[in-house]
Structure prediction request, 588 residues.
Amino acid sequence: MKPNTFPGCRSKSNASDKEIELESNISQLLFDRVLCDVPCSGDGTLRKAPDIWRKWNVGLGNGLHSLQVQIAMRGMSLLKVGGRMVYSTCSMNPVENEAVVSEILRKCGGSVELVDVSSEIPQLIRRPGLRSWKIRDKGVWLASYKDVPKYRRTGIIPSMFPSGRSDVDPTDNGHKQENGTNGNSEDALQPTEDAMTSVDDLDVEVSDLPLERCMRLVPHDQNSGAFFIAVIQKVSLLPVVQEKSTTPQGNLVPKKDDEPRITLSNQIPEDKNGKVEVADGANEMCPEGISEANLIDNEEEGAALEPDSFNACENHDTEETEVPVDKETGSGRTGEKRKLQMQGKWKGVDPVVFFKDETIISSIQTFYGIDESFMLYGHLVTRNSDANHVKRIYYVSKSVKDVLELNFRVGQQLKITSVGLKMFERQTSREGTTAPCSFRISSEGLPVILPYITKQILYATPTDFKHLLQYKNIKFADFVDAEIGQKASKLMMGCCVIVLKRGGNALPDPVQVDESTIAIGCWKGRASLSVMVTAIDCQELLERLLMRIETEKDKSMQENNVETAQVQDLDNTGKNEGTDSMEVGING
Prediction:
């Protein structure tokens, strides 16, 4: 996708009253946080990817500079006021780093500020950003844009230099006049052609921006890769300034009347008819740019949506890979043929639809006794438009819900590869479909919904909990604590939740979930409980449980030792008091 045309979902201004009412106070998709990890030359990854040595040259960073600026500016335009954007690369070239940040600050004026984060994450060894640098091009060092030969000014542009100006006098900032020439002459400072000449021998521009607030992570400081990081905060709306279109190499491209008008305000590109244009495919100039879409790039074309297969109970919680499909939905208006969107790497992404089957939602809520304070209606989504074959149900927050509704209203410009937290998953067993609820609680969603469950929940002692993890299946009569077995036999057929007791006591109702809470999903059959957790997760939980048992045992021994010592102290004190009283009596 081209950086300037990332879909800026925005409701139409002429929407009907009903549509406005549904907007939920959101008319444009803006983000609280933006991670702008731009395509770069990658010279910071030479240690882990030595093959880069064969491909790398100084022209890579110069060629990517304009593209990086465009991507970063688009990120700023999609950021809320008060939000933060992190600009990052795995390169050490200042043309790709400080020069890009400088251009962002210049373009945005006082609307953004570079945040000083030097006190955050103190264990991270970092170095401050640079305020001066030179450009290497065609074997020569360039200290200022004035030094750039005319035939190279399409590739080397002013924003690459610390000042960002094309009219810089090389005599400024302490530059020396050489050979008695006039400071305003283009020949005042000739580029150094000798490759052996040190960069320190040249006078350089010094930026007046606080670029030392950027962070440089170099490999030999903490045995890592090299990274550049800058945190930029948006303090007000961006100025509306017409942006000249350039190629990634810096060449100016004349705008046509029918091309989108790109501004630096919080607006989306529109053509002369007011229709949103969405670019097709990724930018060919930068094949190393990687996005989540690459994960599905190898899917076969025309993959059909297969009905979700139902796990048998013995399959437990084993994850299945969803088969991406190509489902192009129509426009919001009847009869209007919407332009096919996001071809190429985005092809094959399942649709996102709200799950509104009240019968299933009601059965889930009743079966688990989910408290009404936990909002289910309107917050459940799936990746299958056929409600009869839904395999997984995901839970989304209100803010995500608003974004999805906005995306639907503008014609689904965003293709969503991942959304929400997997909360429920369809489950069947060898015992048939006698369970009143066919959806179990997923391991991912259990910590979120656990405090709101009032039914199908049991509290197990450490011994019985350990046996469940070890043997995966236990008959009701085989529980060490017979009371647990009796309670388990009285549960309804289907999914239930087993929570580990703390210190031999049951957890409060409702359950207070924290990092120490251990709970698992099980399947209650006719005569036994079966764990619905993968073997790997069972092993990890078992290790956590054993560590907790050892910790509690040590703590108990320490408390017993303290109590014993206190009793001994009391005994000794009593003996001493008796001796003193006897002495007093004798002396009396």
